[in-house]
Write a structure and sequence with these properties.
Elements: E1 10-13, H1 23-39, E2 42-47, H2 57-69, E3 79-80, H3 85-97, E4 101-104, H4 108-120, H5 144-152, E5 158-161, H6 163-169, E6 175-178, E7 185-188, E8 198-200, H7 208-218, E9 223-227, H8 233-243, E10 250-254, H9 274-279, H10 284-290
Parallel strand pairs: 1-2, 2-3, 9-10
Antiparallel strand pairs: 4-5, 5-8, 6-7
Glutamic acid (GLU) binds next to loops.
Length: 293
């Protein structure tokens, strides 16, 4: 019998076109490209552009320029999230039908105020791995008729995952295989640390967690290589993959490139863009050395 052909590894680089790429992105993109080459795998590119208020076509074009300058090649067509909202909506509808998602009416400000009130009264309020207060759990139990009334009345809302119910509905241990620069081996996922995460927003449709999970499956990604800042988010992604019957890629969360002041580089803080380095005469080989490759 001929053994089935081994599936080619599939990697992806998934930037958000809401600013210029910096050295942290260069490390991510180059690592993905190097690993694809070393394993005879494929490299895909995905524009995470659902945040329509902040993403622009100019930033998207600049990303293609920067990546080409770094020497990367990727398969066409590029998947642009803004063109696939139906895919994310279908996933949301399934979670709603399974009773695992609910409309949440409180604003971020109201949640913060509720947490502060509790903390002022000496009662700790749970916070997620990024430090944001968990959503209060009272709206999980609103009667369906009240939810419908409030939605019909045009009340602004997002859709959140009912974390307790979602975790309870999964009867296998949630783990992932990690080969990155932090903890490695089989990691036990802890999605409850995030509370009732947002699945669908009112301003920018779909959420990072939902769209990244759906896209990694749609694109057949076998290896996710991204920064350590997303290590904990993987717990949510593993839960969503399990709830939606999607395959689990392996993960490599790489070290972050820090600025001179020791903090993580960020687009919004205007940290040195690749373009500036290019203009200053650095070569793409110099960028490889700068990011330690
Ligand atoms: N779009 C995310 C970012 O630019 C990366 C998402 C991911 O790699 O899962 O930070």
């Amino acid at each position: 019998m001929i053994p089935p052909a081994r599936q080619k590894p599939v990697f992806r680089f998934a930037p958000s076109p809401n600013g210029r790429l910096h050295l942290g992105h260069a490390l991510s993109a180059l690592l993905n490209a190097d690993m694809a080459k070393a394993t005879g795998g494929r490299l895909l590119l995905r524009m995470e552009d659902i945040d329509i208020g902040r993403c622009t076509p100019e930033f998207e074009r600049a990303i293609y320029d920067d990546l080409a300058w770094l020497g990367l090649t990727w398969e066409e067509p590029v998947r642009r999230q803004s063109e696939h909202l139906d895919d994310y909506r279908r996933a949301l509808d399934r979670l709603i039908a399974d009773g695992l998602a609910y409309p949440a009416f409180m604003t971020r400000g109201e949640v913060k105020a509720r947490a502060a009130q509790s903390e002022a009264a000496g009662k700790a309020w749970p916070r997620d791995p990024d430090g944001a207060p968990h959503y209060p759990n009272d709206e999980r139990y609103l009667a369906a008729s009240i939810r419908q009334q409030r939605i019909a009345a045009g009340e602004r809302h997002v859709w959140r995952l009912d974390m307790e119910r979602a975790v309870a509905s999964v009867n296998t241990a949630l783990t992932w295989v990690e080969t990155g620069d932090g903890q490695t081996g089989e990691i036990v996922a802890d999605p409850r640390a995030w509370g009732d995460v947002v699945l669908w927003r009112s301003d920018a449709p779909s959420s990072y967690h939902l769209s990244v999970t759906v896209d990694d499956a749609v694109q057949g990604i076998t290896h996710v290589v991204r920064g350590l800042d997303l290590f904990h988010a993987t717990s949510v992604h593993r839960l969503l993959q399990t709830l939606l019957d999607l395959p689990a890629p392996s993960y490599r969360h790489h070290r972050l490139i820090l600025g001179a002041d020791g903090r993580k580089l960020s687009k919004s803080q205007g940290d040195t863009a690749l373009l500036e380095l290019r203009k200053a005469g650095r070569t793409s080989d110099a960028i490889r050395r700068l990011v330690g490759l």
